[in-house]
Amino acid sequence: MLTMNNIELKELRNKNRITQDELAKLCNVSLRTIQNWEGGNIEIPKSKEKILDNIFNKIAVGTNNTIYNSGDFATNTINTDLSTQLAELINIQKEYQQLIKEKDKQIADLLEIIKTKNA
Prior knowledge:
The structure is a single chain. By secondary structure, this protein is mainly alpha-helical. The longest helix has 37 residues, at 82-118. The chain has a three-stranded antiparallel β-sheet, with helices on one face. The protein is built from five helices and three strands; from the N terminus they run ααααβββα. It has helices spanning 6-15, 20-27, 31-39, 46-55, 82-118; strands at 60-61, 66-69, 74-77. Mean pLDDT is 75; it is low at 59-80. It is rod-shaped.
């Protein structure tokens, strides 16, 4: 298990919008302990890393866009920016909607041809 350092803890806490006081209550430690962890004054105990993993909902982004997950804070680099992926999905959705409109038009045209032939 890799240990989380003080800078990573602070970034994870800030990115998840959790105050030091809230984190202290969630970890069942004092506010001063959180301050000491983040200040690098004391090492985060292994038993508390598991709790932190659960608090940060199994996936949280730390320093240098490192992902911590699966209860062991194993690191993986993020390959693509999430906003880029979202933009790509939006474009795919627009293309799909355009294709649906085109197919609907083709169906309407075919129905018109069938009506004309049956008339």
